[in-house]
Fold these 4 entries.
Entry 1:
Amino acid sequence: MITRFLLYIIANAVAILTAEWLIPGVVYSYNFVSLMKIALFLAVANAFIKPLVKLLAGPLILLTLGLFTLIINIFLIWLVVRFAPELSMDGLNAYFWTMLVVSAFNFVVSMATHKNE
């Protein structure tokens, strides 16, 4: 359980670096401690806040056939950006593509750890 959470933190850190490298509008000040703080915020948001928001937004998720989860993921990244001044994003386009990069990295970790269980 703890190993899996640590893998998510590492994946989030690599995803933030990848998003900063690939996506225009994503600016990150290079500092290892701040990168780990951002990755930890993302992991905690995905582990604790996301299930609660998905539970509350269940009817909207059903009504939009799951597309509202994209909005929830963008909201979580926006929340992390608000708590981490080292990371900034310009515009919805940057949030959307960053959400896709972070989701892809988390999906890979999820598939790798699920196979081992």
Note: The chain has one domain: 2-112.
Entry 2:
Amino acid sequence: MYFPAYRPRRLRKNENFRRMIRETRLTVDGLVLPLFITAEKEFKKPIASMPGHFQLSITYAVEEARAARDLGIPAVLLFGIPARKDETGTDAYSDDGVIQRAVREIKEAVPEILVVTDLCFCEYTDHGHCGILTEEGVDNDATLEIIAEAAVVQARAGSDIIAPSGMMDGAVGAIREALDEEGFDATPIMSYSAKYASCFYGPFRDAAESAPRSGDRKSYQMDPANSDEAMREITLDVEEGADIIMVKPALPYLDIVRRAREEFDLPLAAYNVSGEYAMIKAAANLGWIDGERAMLEALTSIKRAGADIIITYFAKDAAKLLAGR
């Protein structure tokens, strides 16, 4: 029987061999933990569709940021649930808005951790869309004005990274111009550059109370069938001044993550979204899969595809396992 001179199994025969030749290294350094913060006081409500995650008052959010820091997680990503919603989402660009208050308190209590602020209006508007709504739909250019205002307010509160997620045309450019004019030229932008109109956001919409009251977001988020369009979207954000680009969701779009890695020489983030998290958790709870192995395999696949930064609800669980390796 003929065997080739090279036998791949020679280097798989025990864990030390496998460790030495491992091509992709998953570490805590690139993980970002999302947090959902409410305007309530002393409030911690479990999110049924996202086991292990909660809607948190600012006090509890500070505790979560401290716990993340202690696990070596470098950053948290904040989403706000305001006490009151209105047509234009004014809490998002108020100095006293829930996220601005949370940023100040987290940065005071845990100055070592990076605070990333999501910049969108779906959590803040009474209609649940990501900008100013008219009879024709979301008014892109009118929304840019409040996007710019919100970016400055977030930066003034102490946000380390502004992360626009609404997929409005020209948003990165409007933010960059506004930040620079107000003296925040050192504040980077992590843009949700290729954000798809995905069903995998379902649990997030429960957590953030952000489901649209009518219609959907397909006129501004991307068609899941498109790949070339994602490269055009990312190109626009890069030209407008994005410092970090992002693909969202991650697992169903690993091909997009790979293309972005190959075509753009900027730090690349991928968002391991709520539906991806919930599926693994649900299957693990039913005993159908090994939840810890599935988590690490999923995160490793995102890293292997080319992501430098992984935003994931698994961040704390992964950090604990990685520390034990």
Note: Residues 23-323 form a domain with the TIM Barrel fold (CATH 3.20.20.70).
Entry 3:
Amino acid sequence: MGIIVIAGYKPKPGKGGALKELMKTHLPRLKAENLVTDRKSIMMEAADGTIIEVFEWLSAEAIQSAHTNPAVLEMWGEYAEVCDYVPVGSLAEADNLFSGFKPLD
């Protein structure tokens, strides 16, 4: 059984466009390493520019193996150049009963 996660990526100053481009490759790269399910991710943008992604890891073991996978570590390095990871609960929208975000295609 998979594990669905919600991740927040806050772009570094001037890196919003680069982050959005990188997001297009996230799931396909994880899929190429057999770490995620076939479930399509949902991506959205908070008012402050943070990108939120909901996606499904294949398993707890897949999450663990990602931390030693060279392709994933390389990808995470690319993310570190353009964003910081933030808890979704830290976003202003999380204070609302129904949190609304802008769809990201």
Note: Residues 16-32 form the longest helix (17 residues).
Entry 4:
Amino acid sequence: MPYRTAENADAATLVALALAFRDHLERDRPTVAQLAAGVSQLLASPDAEFTLAHQDGEAVGYTLLRFRPSMWAGGLEATLEDLFVRPDRRGLGLGRGLVGVSLARARDRGCVTIGLDTNERNEASTRIYRSFGFDAHSRRWGGRQMFYRLALEPPCC
């Protein structure tokens, strides 16, 4: 089977994939040490779950799901925080497969909604998300829902 839930023994693999994702995004943070600490913490958390995609015996992609109760959803909500497939393995259906597994895992956990954010110009991932029924359109306002982010950098020195 090409997809499986990651375990503690997969920490180094997850860090390597997250580092490739970071580099793909042309960022220099988080550091390798920060990624390693974050992966370790998330693997130990009951509110997070990684899924790995394998091809030819090698891990080539992952998702990170986060879970939390939501008063607005009326139950448990999942967030698809990360979806990454190595660039040399894209176009083979692995990203779509990872999203499908993530939706199944969210349903298995009893989630009533799942959300995510992506850049509107990330056409490949947007096509995948839309094919599963994700929609950014707001019935109330008639426009797209936006997700804003503010980096809260630690104080210097």
Note: The chain has four helices and five strands.
